[in-house]
Amino acid sequence: MSQKTIEAGSTNTEIRKFGMRDKFGYLFGDFGNDFFFMLVMTFLMVFYTDVFHINAATVGVLFLVARLWDAFADVAWGRFIDTRKPGKNGKFKPWIFRMSFPLVISGVLMFVTIPGMSDGFYMAWAFVTYIVWGTLYSTVNIPYGSMASVITSDPLERTALSTWRTMGAMLASLIINVLGPLIVFVDNKIDANRMLMAAAIFGVLAIVCYMACYKLSTERIVAPEKEKVNMGKTMKGLLKNKPLIFILIASLLFMVNTMLIGTVNVYLFKDYFSNAAALSIVGFIQAASVFLAIPLVSPLVARFGKKETAAAGMFLAGAVYTLLYFMPNLTLTPFITLSAVGMFGFAFFNLVVWAFVTDVIDYHEYLTGLREDATVYSIYSMARKIGQAIAGGLGGIAIAAVGYDATREAQTQSTLDGIHALATLVPAVIYIVVFLILVLLYPLSKKRTNQLAADLVEKRKI
């Protein structure tokens, strides 16, 4: 089912067949995205608390406000892109090229410190630069995510794109989580100058990756032009899209969990285990678990389906983190070893989640006859941003609630116990809830997904 020609009656004749070039191109997109996304998720909270000396609860409020703003910015940007006509380089790729430079510049500015400035200045600087960065992130990420649905319509090829996208994210995660702590921490404390240097280096690498994504990817599917549809009619169709609704909920919960773990783990290893350098080991293991799962994904999805494979991984992750909660006296090495099994479990959801998104975009077209890739993807991205908002807010508030005090040389035992619970019990509950949503509520099984792809091919011929 690979597209050799642009669909929907385009006058173009032959275009390159889907292949490894597209996979590498799509990998580079999230490689670039996650150089800064992972940098922010892993280090920005502790940078704000320990360098800017902003209260953790205040940082939580900033994250909450910024992500809620970004959620609506995603939808506005997605709707804007869907009103643009494709150019010679496609509908989505040009925006990646145009907006990646201001995005990276704003990201570096987040980590700038100016000697002699007051705490009030740094709080204002944090609010402005973080919100600007998040808004610009939408202008690159929405077209990038939407692009997958027009690169190919084949379900297995889309699973491959989702897998390669996750590989890109994991490569960035591996670099950030393994090298990052070694660069930015000095004597178990974050260093402002080293943090800025890391941001600049990773910013340059992000630009290189975005340009590779632009050059290597090919958009193949172009929907026929139809009369303009107002947002009310589009939203009516989205509300009937049950696969979208349930994958939104599952992804929102998963994102809350991912962001919360990213925030709490810094304090878990820095304070609970008194070993910030261990974050590098955890980062390496998390990336390694994904790469171990990669060769298993395609055969498992081909045999059982995306929903079924992801659900099994969620159940394994939930069971492991439950066990970790009930073993609070584990030392560093056995804790990391056991958590690696949980990481292997949730890797499967990470590897297929973007293929879920392309499926629900197709389902929207099946229900409404409207091909609105960017709008549907932006709704999905909006849910993820809300998840980030909740997690960012909860992370800062929860760290403050358990009594974390950046001015103390050592945290109290009750604070350490609270950090341990945040890092184990909360993820356990969330993973089990996502498992139940996939099994009981998400309707696109393997059989229904394959039938959907076939039905759309027939509808586009009419």
Give a brief rundown of this model:
The chain is mainly alpha-helical and 462 residues long. It is built from 14 helices and two strands; from the N terminus they run αααααββααααααααα. The protein has helices at 20-50, 56-82, 93-109, 119-151, 155-184, 192-216, 231-239, 242-272, 278-304, 306-325, 332-368, 373-401, 413-440, 446-461, and strands spanning 185-186, 189-190.
Structure description:
The chain has 462 residues and is mainly alpha-helical. It has 14 helices and two strands; from the N terminus they run αααααββααααααααα. It has one domain: MFS general substrate transporter like domains (Growth Hormone, Chain: A, Up-down Bundle). Helix content is 78%, strand content 1%. The protein has a two-stranded antiparallel sheet. Strand 1 and strand 2 form a beta hairpin. Helix 1 packs antiparallel against helix 4 and helix 1 packs across helix 8.
What's the topology here?
Elements (H helix, E strand, L loop, with lengths): L19 H31 L5 H27 L10 H17 L9 H33 L3 H30 E2 L2 E2 L1 H25 L14 H9 L2 H31 L5 H27 L1 H20 L6 H37 L4 H29 L11 H28 L5 H16 L1
Antiparallel strand pairs: 1-2
Helix pairs in contact: 1-4, 1-5, 1-6, 1-8, 2-4, 2-12, 3-4, 3-6, 4-11, 4-12, 5-9, 5-11, 8-11, 8-12, 8-13, 9-10, 9-11, 10-11, 10-13, 11-12, 11-14
